[in-house]
Amino acid sequence: MIVRRIALSCFRNYEFESTEFDAGTNVICGRNAQGKTNLLEAVYMLSTGRSFRTRFDRELISFGADGADILAEVSSHGREQSVNLRMSQGRPKRILVNSVKKTAGELSETVNTVLFCPDDLNLIKEGAAVRRRLMDNAICQIRPRYAEILSDFNKLLENKTRILKDWRDKPALLDTLDDFSDGLARASAQLIRYRAAFALRLSEAAAPIHRDFSDGLEELSIRYKTVSSVKDPFASAREIYYDICEHQERHREAELESAQCLTGAHKDDLDIDINGQSARAFASQGQTRTAALSLKLAEREIFLRETGEYPVLLLDDVLSELDGKRQAFVLNRIGGGQTLITCCEDEGISRKTGGRVIFVEGGRIR
Fold first, then answer.
1. DSSP 51
2. pTM of the model
3. Least crowded by CB within 10 Å, which of 48, 84, 102, 148?
4. Range of the domain at 36
């Protein structure tokens, strides 16, 4: 899976620029705030239809422009394909693959990406939301149906939360509470099955990577954590639904009192242990970084097993945050697929990788 060429028009700080990428390693160099991450963001959007930095398309459009375009030539699944994303002020995004209209969820059938940025080094120590995001971003690409379920779940959660916050002022809202609770339980049951399966695959893939990373001194394990009443997250959606309803009923009064939704997949997490101890509680900074790197490299391996092709790996200024040993480990593990690495000009990453070098300055590519 290779992005061969990309052209940007009025995207972020790019007026109109295009560049070709090597099938192996591409090092995107430049000083800070020149547009390196913007270029990675555009490539990421080829697989998801959305940015990893903002929820709003209008923030992707250059100041004063009516719209922005991303056009790419991609080689995937044995075919040469074209992908075009058009973002317009005040209008829905338009997505075309080989000139055929597609949804954002369908992009993953053409391009897959794995993104690793400095914030991901906090995957282990941060709250549960970052680990749910890891699962959601990956599963949405592997299982396009998941994105639709997740979108429905988020809408239901937003509506139920609004009812719980406002019912005292508007008691009539309680008439609809049970309907939203039921919908939330049904959507949660489906999300839980997907996440449990992915967490198992992630644990199986990450453990040997982490073992190599730590010279065989550490064992990494990952366990999926969901609603406490769910007896088996691998059971049928119907069984999980009934388990969630049980938890929901027990916590109904607590939800009304706290004005918070206490039952559902929005509480999910990954318990990550190193040598049998909680990494979040006990791991050193070096151990947490090693574990985070192992998770991201494992995600890449899962895509390979799932699709038969490596996803495009996007490393956004992450190597500058790592010591020499961890840099070397990552660079030695990224062979076999296409990788785009952003870095400052004085880091010498291009000499270590031997890949194609792309310079970015003031929104210009050379």
1. -
2. 0.90
3. 148
4. 1-112+309-366
